[in-house]
């Protein structure tokens, strides 16, 4: 794992946003971009009651691959990403990504690439439970 990757985790417990932010602290960092994804109360015109995230056993290896790819493509000084699995309620933090770079523009670009790649490549599937009793799986292969 490259030295720039400071924290990677997939966990069932609530995510500590401050810990993710602190993980990218470095004297060479002039800008930190932080993304926090939360569970919203609606999707596709339906009211969401809660959701469950499930992960493939290879999820941590894929998380490491994505982080390494971002580090290779951008001028990243430090990077962190944590995704939650299990049952989440409305307002819960589902994912936090942070990237530290020498300049803010690089940090914004790298952080956006990181979250976009995680959403696209990470084998985590969302089971949405709707207020009307319906349900839907999102992101399944």
Short précis:
With 141 residues, the chain is α+β, with helices and mostly antiparallel strands. It has helices at 17-23, 59-73, 104-121, and strands spanning 5-11, 31-38, 42-43, 46-55, 76-84, 86-89, 93-101, 124-130, 135-138.
Draw up the topology in text.
Layout: E1 5-11, H1 17-23, E2 31-38, E3 42-43, E4 46-55, H2 59-73, E5 76-84, E6 86-89, E7 93-101, H3 104-121, E8 124-130, E9 135-138
Parallel strand pairs: 1-5
Antiparallel strand pairs: 2-7, 3-4, 4-6, 4-8, 5-7, 8-9
Helix pairs in contact: 2-3
Structure description:
It is a single chain. Strands 3, 4, 6, 8 and 9 form a five-stranded antiparallel beta sheet that branches. The chain contains three helices and nine strands. Helix 2 (about 60-75) packs antiparallel against helix 3 (about 105-120). The chain has about 140 residues and is an alpha+beta fold.
Discrete helix count:
3
Instruction: Give the SSE order as H and E letters.
Output: EHEEEHEEEHEE
Assign an overall shape: elongated
How much strand content do the residues show?
35-45%
If you average the pLDDT, what whole number results?
Answer: 97
Give the biggest beta sheet.
5 strands, antiparallel
What's the end-to-end separation, in Å?
Answer: 27 Å
Characteristics of this structure?
four-stranded mixed beta sheet, 141 residues, five-stranded antiparallel beta sheet, elongated, 43% strand, alpha+beta, 3 helices
């Amino acid at each position: 794992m490259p030295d720039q990757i400071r924290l990677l985790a997939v966990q069932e417990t609530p995510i500590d946003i401050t810990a993710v932010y602190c993980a990218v602290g470095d004297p060479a960092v002039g800008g930190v971009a932080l993304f926090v994804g939360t569970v919203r109360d609606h999707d596709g015109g339906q009211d969401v009651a809660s959701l469950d995230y499930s992960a493939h056993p290879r999820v941590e290896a894929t998380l490491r691959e994505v982080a390494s790819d971002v580090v290779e493509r951008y001028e990243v000084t430090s990077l962190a990403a944590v995704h939650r699995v299990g049952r989440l309620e409305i307002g819960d933090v589902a994912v936090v990504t942070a990237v530290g770079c020498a300049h803010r523009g690089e940090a914004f670009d790298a952080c956006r690439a990181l979250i976009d790649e995680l959403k696209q490549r990470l084998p985590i599937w969302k089971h949405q439970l709707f207020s009307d009793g319906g349900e839907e799986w999102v992101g399944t292969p």
